[in-house]
Amino acid sequence: MAPELLRRRPPPWMSIPTKAHGSSLSISFKTDPFLITLPRAVDPHGTCLALLARATYKDLISQPSYPRPVLRPPSILHRVAPAAGAGLGVFAVHDLGAGELVFSERPLLVVPTSVTECEWEACAARLPPAALGALVALADVDPRGGGRPAARRIRTNGVRVPSLCDSGTDYLAVGALSARSPGSGADLRCGTPDSCAPNAVLRFDSRALTLELRVLRDVRAGDELRVSYVDAGLPLAARRAALAPWRFACDCSCCASGDAGDTLRARIRVPDLRFISSPAVGIQRCVLQLMQLERAGLEVLGAYGTCLGLLAGLYGRIGDRRKAKEYKRKTDAWTYASDYAVVGPARTDGDFGATILREGAWAGLKSTHCSLARRMNGGRVKSSATQGKQIIVGSARSTSRK
User: Fold this and answer.
1) Which InterPro entries does the UniProt record give (predicted)?
2) Which domains does the chain have, with CATH numbers?
């Protein structure tokens, strides 16, 4: 986007001064952060009210194809129905493939985690009546108690958008349908229950400004769609501790397995190519790792996507085009489903070690999957002309948005 456009002030309708009830707090475009209606004052797909830092706003509008039209599934792919022992749940109506979109919505409100509850309340006060009514209808199980009513519902139902547009500031997005709280009526806030071995994930598309529910692996018609409210890579005790303040106990099969699940998580490693003598050995190790992750239902972890990408490159290197194409398709589906995911707090999958992609024997792999490995490993790329190699440094820890 042209620099002059970035410097241009938004039109008057995009600058919405607001004042909290009973408070002198005022938020406008002159403040930082400022309150703004996105993507525009009137949009056929709906709008959301966002409290954004100036740097975040500039990054947001600088994205190619922003604002992108909201993606919708071609037909209704889910239904809300009673779930065994868990109130209402969301179920697949048809067979769904990995990465497939189940539903999408514009959030009611997007706010940074770094501001006060008073500022959250001021933002909520500026919502249109229908949106404010939807926010107030959400459940309130804020473990702290007290505080302001709208702020409590934001804290209870907001899903974290880690570093929106790489701004360095975390945001909470509150959706009427994708809220994680129990409710009444035939909407999705009743469903998408927690599972530490999820088959679906909530992601935030910053170009379309939408919360999306996508499936992580193939799902059959009638299967319940489950997301992870916390980091699925954490040990059992840590997951329970993260859920306890919200008066919630996860009863998924992963938690029911007890220490066995922790043992499996401790063995998850991204194969280190420094110590692999041939592509065939690399393929064997990646396939074994994928089998472990799939058996545990942990496709949500960054290690899974990294192994898929490595296999696509390795099969291409040995000339097996059929399998290279197959794993490239799986990599694309996984990446599209998990990119900018907003499940729970900032996620980490554990320290899986550094991944190094060498030139020479690994040239095809490096050229195809360097960016994928960087995203999965949370590292940076260094080039060395003297040694003739490109290195991804840093651990394989991955937030689910990377």
Assistant:
1) H3K4_H4K5_MeTrfase, SET_dom, SET_dom_sf
2) 1-67+108-174 (no CATH), 70-104+177-234 (2.170.270.10), 267-393 (no CATH)
